Amino acid sequence: MGASRGLRWVLLGVVLAGAAGAVQFFTRSAPVPAADAPPILAAYRSLDGANKLQRLSRHAGVDFGAAAGTPVIAAAEGRVVQLIDYGPGCGLGVILEHPEFKRYTAYCHLQAVLARMGEELPRGRILGRVGTSGNAVGVAHLHFELCTSACSSHADGDLWGTADPMKFAAGCFDPQRSYPMGRLALTYPIACGGLYRER
Questions:
Q1: What is the pTM of this model?
Q2: What is the DSSP letter of 89?
Q3: DSSP summary character for residue 125
Q4: Of 34, 42, 90, 194, which has the most beta carbons under 10 Å away?
């Protein structure tokens, strides 16, 4: 009886998902982050801070933990459209424009900026180093934002013009891998396992 009922569910799944998609429908699983993926200290829209204290307003980006001096890399091919030096917020930072997708990525709290204004960066190119500049609360990390319009980085609570970058995550950068064309795919902005493109 139990096996028969299970078979009915499988057949219903085949009908609903279509024969070609049935195997994928029944065997799909959530992607597992690489063992060397950078830890997320604070997620998009989170009330948790990188220092484990409560924020007063929702977070407009994702905070990746890493040791000071760790390479920060371009999450997708883009052009440097702004270099930031704003003590009360982003600190030292870089904004990349991704014109094909009408999106921008912001990289904040850097120890050092290695990119130049107007420079075209391929995915994986070092643009700076993790630090504690700006309002990083003494915790070395990278604040990473995805903006849907030109931005300079957003204060907590200001989510207008932002989106969750993890919805476009393509995992760790790998120079041997090809990435999708025609849709936004963001690799982690912290070099995993020491893989990045030299300057």
A1: 0.81
A2: T
A3: B
A4: 90
